[in-house]
Amino acid sequence: MFLDYDGTLSPIVADPDRAFMFRKMRKTVKNLAKCFPTAIVSGRCRDKDTELLFQPVSEFLPMINEVYKQLVETTKSTPGAKVENNKFCLSVHFRCMDEKKWSELAQQVKSVLKEYPKLRLTQGRKVLEIRPTIKWDKGKALEFLLESLGFADCTDVFPVYIGDDRTDDAFKRLRDRGQGFGILVSKFPKDTSASYSLQEPDEVGFKLT
Ligand SMILES: O=P(O)(O)OC[C@H]1O[C@H](O[C@H]2O[C@H](CO)[C@@H](O)[C@H](O)[C@H]2O)[C@H](O)[C@@H](O)[C@@H]1O
């Protein structure tokens, strides 16, 4: 079982530092892990996550820290903007900002990144994500785990990935492999390679119980 964190195991909240799994969900994930190999695959820094994640990009650390400081400085006068340092990637949140200021913030971020061609910008759920341009994503992490566990070519192993965002490339990876399936957690249709959908983390907890 491969599980995304934000918006999948924990509900989306305004403050990223307060995105916790409810006690019931923690228990469900714990029980699930007793029955199946289970991993939480998240872009978050490990201190904030509770399970396993992969961080193969340590050489980018100094650059990421430098950009973090610049982004904090550049966005400090923008009410509601929040820069989060996830150690190997950065997130610039605009959930709490006036919608009219969103594009201005995106421009500020782009202007900082101009000097850093080794970093790329993507967009998640009211968040701009900055990460190294290496070929590493949740799909790759999932594949790496399957291979490490010796499950990659097993016909009797059925990997399931549950995630909330179209940037969750693990959906596509499972479909391309023709092994297992993805479940999208969203109240609205999203263009992903997931095979099924659930509406919200509560439903995820219910189905995993
Ligand atoms: O790659 P992921 O593990 O799916 O992480 C994506 C981002 O998740 C978090 O932000 C999202 O959840 C926050 C808390 O509910 C919410 O405030 C924010 O609007 C969402 O985008 C996390 O804080 C970010 O660092 C991740 O990039």
Automatic annotation (TrEMBL):
<comment type="function">
    <text>Removes the phosphate from trehalose 6-phosphate to produce free trehalose. Trehalose accumulation in plant may improve abiotic stress tolerance.</text>
</comment>
<dbReference type="InterPro" id="IPR036412">
    <property type="entry name" value="HAD-like_sf"/>
</dbReference>
<dbReference type="InterPro" id="IPR023214">
    <property type="entry name" value="HAD_sf"/>
</dbReference>
<protein>
    <recommendedName>
        <fullName>Trehalose 6-phosphate phosphatase</fullName>
        <ecNumber>3.1.3.12</ecNumber>
    </recommendedName>
</protein>
<dbReference type="InterPro" id="IPR003337">
    <property type="entry name" value="Trehalose_PPase"/>
</dbReference>
<comment type="similarity">
    <text>Belongs to the trehalose phosphatase family.</text>
</comment>
<comment type="pathway">
    <text>Glycan biosynthesis; trehalose biosynthesis.</text>
</comment>
<keyword id="KW-0378">Hydrolase</keyword>
<dbReference type="InterPro" id="IPR044651">
    <property type="entry name" value="OTSB-like"/>
</dbReference>
<dbReference type="Pfam" id="PF02358">
    <property type="entry name" value="Trehalose_PPase"/>
</dbReference>
